[in-house]
Amino acid sequence: MTDVVMPRLSDTMEEGTVLRWLKQDGEHVQRGEELVEIETDKAAMTYESDCEGVLQTVASEGDTLAVGELIARIGEPDGEGPPSTQPILVEEAPHAVVDVSPSPAPHEDRVKASPLARRIARETGVELRTLAGSGPGGRIVKADVEAATAQPAPATDEIAAAKGEASTVELTRTQRTIARRMAESKATIPDFTLTADIDMERCVELRAELKRLSHIDAPTYNDMIVKACALALREHPRANGSYRDGRFELHSRVNVGVAVAVASEDPTGGALVVPTVFDADTKALGEIARETRALAERVRDGTVTPPELSGGTFTVSNLGMYGIAGFTAIVNPPQAAILAIGAVAPRAVVRDGQIVARHTMSVTLACDHRILYGADAALFLARIRELLEEPAALTL
């Protein structure tokens, strides 16, 4: 029998959740057939079988397991053939592996529990037989064991009582990844910010003209900003680089990440996902518009793939559509900078000694000071402003 382990399907994946088995237990599986749907820290992906034989599932739908943990076995049901003595790692997709090794001994008890729940129970001394499982089919999952080990607050705690009843909400994998990476950013990156106001009057006129001439949706202001950033990044390589272990990494491709909010009817749900527009400096404005629109749709319907969420060298985060005048975003490591975009709106400005109404936009550039210094960042931001205030170059 060949052991199938939880594969690493993205560069930041540490664990995965079995969403749905695409083959039934005991069913014959061909090499290359779709085997299981797995939720990673970035997206849901289908994983294909690397071998042929009869499927014996180990992990149930809804189980969350660390990368490398056993999820199934594939082979002949009678177990013919000598067992291998050394694990063999076979490359699958980005960083995915299949581990071929002797099958572990079966569990002594018959309590239905995920492998991760069993491990936590062993480490904390929790007796699985005393727990009621909340997973599929009454299976005990990680949250059940953690709930059993949690210490209840004292009944006399007046402060807790004053807040009313509290409910504990488990974060989704994406939310946990966001929390970890943002904490990592604030703890390790010495950042600084620069703010500028940009006259968007010419961009407003350009968009109106493109809407008039086009039979499809015209590029948004955000598409224009992505294009302007891409052109500026090509001219300022440090802004398109990364700081790693005392070295500068200057990337040859300009890949702009576009932050997309994923709404949820559940007040505890929602997330922020950043798909990538690759080689944005070489793409026409209309091409960027079509690509960002398609990426946003795939993010919101859950079909975006890990490769589309990787490889970014710079990020644009826009809250202008919510009426936000300006804000500061957190640098997405290992990128050098992130640009936060406020709303495009008519405001009173002084032109030629007169107060007039002009469409303006406030932007804030947050930078990693280890690679992007103050003067360099100021020149980079000034170039973005120049391109947006005279946007003819964006349409070339």
Description:
The chain has 396 residues and is of the alpha+beta class. The chain folds into 3 domains: 2-100, Beta Barrel (OB fold (Dihydrolipoamide Acetyltransferase, E2P)), CATH 2.40.50; 115-149, E3-binding domain (Dihydrolipoamide Transferase, Irregular), CATH 4.10.320; 173-395, Chloramphenicol Acetyltransferase, CATH 3.30.559.10. The chain has helices at residues 115-124, 142-149, 158-162, 173-188, 201-213, 221-235, 285-301, 374-389; strands spanning 2-5, 15-21, 28-29, 34-39, 44-48, 53-57, 64-66, 70-75, 88-92, 96-100, 191-199, 241-244, 247-250, 256-258, 260-262, 271-273, 276-277, 314-318, 337-341, 345-351, 354-368. The strands form 6 sheets. Strands 11, 14, 17, 18, 19, 20 and 21 form a 7-stranded mixed β-sheet that branches. The radius of gyration is 26 Å and the shape is elongated. The model is unreliable at 79-109 (pLDDT under 50).
Class of the largest domain, according to the CATH hierarchy? Answer: Alpha Beta
Q: What radius of gyration results from the CA coordinates? A: 26 Å
Count of alpha/pi helices:
8
What is the domain tally? Answer: 3
- The assigned CATH architecture of the largest domain is 2-Layer Sandwich
Mean pLDDT metric: 84
Give the fraction of residues assigned to helices. 25-40%
Fraction in beta strands: 25-35%
Shape: elongated
The biggest beta sheet reads: 7 strands, mixed
Order of helices and strands: EEEEEEEEEEHHHHEHHEEEEEEHEEEEH
In the CATH scheme, what's the topology name of the largest domain? Chloramphenicol Acetyltransferase
**Alpha-beta classification:** alpha+beta
Low-confidence stretches: 79-109
Distance between the termini: 58 Å
Overall number of strands: 21
